[in-house]
Specification:
This protein has about 450 residues and is an alpha/beta fold. Helices cover about 35% and strands about 15% of the residues. The longest helix has 17 residues, at about 40-55.
């Protein structure tokens, strides 16, 4: 049965702003308090989705969250009408209001971890929503994420959904940003690659000293158990603590994989040779031919990798088996990175072409092409069972473009978040969006 990998991109929400909330994310912190352009951000993301669809890739859309999250503010002691809650938070605890308005759910690489049916014990596609408990503004996402994913992948015959792991530091889970799958064909059994930053219970694993390691080994192991993965089909690897302290807050900022290939930086992992040997052996037993491309630090240092988001790229397999690398404009602007990429595509390897996209609005908030998408490998039957309203088409692109133009502001500053009108604008937009995407009632304001 024919299978494919579908990229479900996060649609940037109406409250896209630069709150500088993500400690350890250099771009997020360095652009804090600048004014943002939610309309431009959403349109840039839609343009990337449309471009990949036009190239022949199956492309989907994942809806944003309701923001500001008034319920979260109520849980922190603010009371009264929704407008009063927002005004109280603005007056008494502006950082909490900023957190409740974050549009960070656009980075759906953090939405969940997904295991295809070819890997799981029960032959279904498994989803575990990420608890994202390292950062408050992200920890409030998973209830709505679970409802949205449930509305997108609703057929229990084909899809299984798991609640987020316990929201404690020992089970810090950041979703697919630290998860990659290697396989010969998307519909065949593969090897799932979990990267962690620290262990919660085993002191033998070193930890970073400056920035937090957001993904724990224990969380990765729990997800593998929930999804019914075989030991022969799983590899765990530790991210280099030194690169976490250099601003590599997720593995997808320093490595990206697809098919039988891992594209990574020389300093990405600890015990790299052992890890590569294990991946090669386990994929080899499944008939695959694991390959890796290491970017030497002498050609691209970690600082340039973080600044350009070279590895936060999309590595896509084309019909002829060659690979296409989707990178942000920042890669072309970095002389050393662009020189490396030119040499890579001319080397005769699997990565034959690089395409550049302008994603400045999301890049300034700390997320690039790979952060914006959740990969889901599906066979033909499973793809047919996906809610058709979330699969990108030319008419849907036009509808969503018009929807953004109708509902989004073209400038947003921190002081604007205190305007209760913004909440009404967001709810009006999302109520219409659920009808466009055929999601039903998934937002708190629609349910309560």
């Amino acid at each position: 049965m024919k299978s494919c990998e579908v990229n479900f991109d996060g649609l940037v929400g109406p409250t896209h702003n630069y709150g500088g909330l993500s400690f350890g994310n250099v771009a997020s912190q360095s652009n804090s308090q600048q004014h943002s352009n939610p309309k431009e951000a959403a349109l840039q993301g839609l343009q990337k989705m449309k471009a990949l669809m036009d190239m022949g890739f199956v492309q989907g859309v994942l809806a944003p969250q309701e923001r500001p999250d008034v319920a979260a503010l109520r849980n922190l002691g603010f009371s009264g009408t929704d407008a009063q809650v927002i005004q109280q938070a603005a007056k008494q605890a502006m950082p909490l209001l900023v957190a409740s308005c974050s549009a960070s759910s656009m980075w759906v690489a953090n939405a969940a971890t997904v295991s295809p049916s070819a890997d799981t014990a029960d032959g279904r596609v498994h989803f575990t929503a990420a608890n994202l408990n390292c950062k408050y503004h992200r920890s409030i996402e998973h209830p709505t994420t679970s409802r949205v994913l449930g509305a997108m992948f609703a057929d229990a015959k084909h899809f299984a959904h798991h609640a987020a792991l316990p929201a404690v530091a020992q089970f810090g889970d950041e979703g697919a940003a630290n998860h990659t799958r290697f396989c010969r064909e998307y519909g065949e059994a593969g090897v799932e690659f979990f990267v962690f930053g620290r262990s919660a219970f085993d002191s033998r694993y070193p930890a970073p000293q400056k920035y937090p390691a957001r993904q724990t080994l224990e969380a990765s192991q729990a997800v593998a158990r929930l999804h019914g993965l075989k030991d022969d089909g799983v590899v765990y690897a530790q991210q280099n603590p030194a690169v976490i302290d250099a601003g590599v807050f997720h593995n997808d900022v320093i490595a990206v994989g697809n098919g039988e290939m891992l594209f990574y930086h020389e300093d990405a992992f600890l015990n790299t040779e052992q890890m590569l040997a294990e991946l090669q052996a386990k994929l080899g037993k499944l008939g695959g031919n694991f390959q890796s491309v290491c970017v030497p630090r002498a050609q691209v240092n970690v600082e340039d990798a973080v600044r350009s988001y070279l590895f936060n790229s999309q590595l896509l397999t084309r019909p002829d088996g060659s690979m296409l690398l989707i990178v942000p404009e920042e890669c072309r602007s970095n002389e050393r990175v662009w020189h490396y990429l030119q040499g890579l595509t001319n080397s005769g390897g699997l990565i034959r072409e690089v395409k550049v996209f302008d994603l400045k609005q999301s890049m300034q908030n700390g997320g690039g092409p790979a952060c914006l998408r959740l990969r889901v490998a599906l066979n033909e039957t499973e793809l047919a069972a996906v809610n058709p309203g979330v699969i990108m088409t030319a008419p849907l692109y036009e509808t969503l473009t018009q929807w953004v133009g109708k509902h989004y502001r073209d400038s947003l500053r921190e002081t604007d978040l205190a305007d209760p009108q913004l909440l009404l604008e967001c709810r009006t937009a999302l109520d219409e969006l659920t009808q466009i995407l055929k999601l039903g009632s998934v937002y708190p304001f629609q349910i309560n």
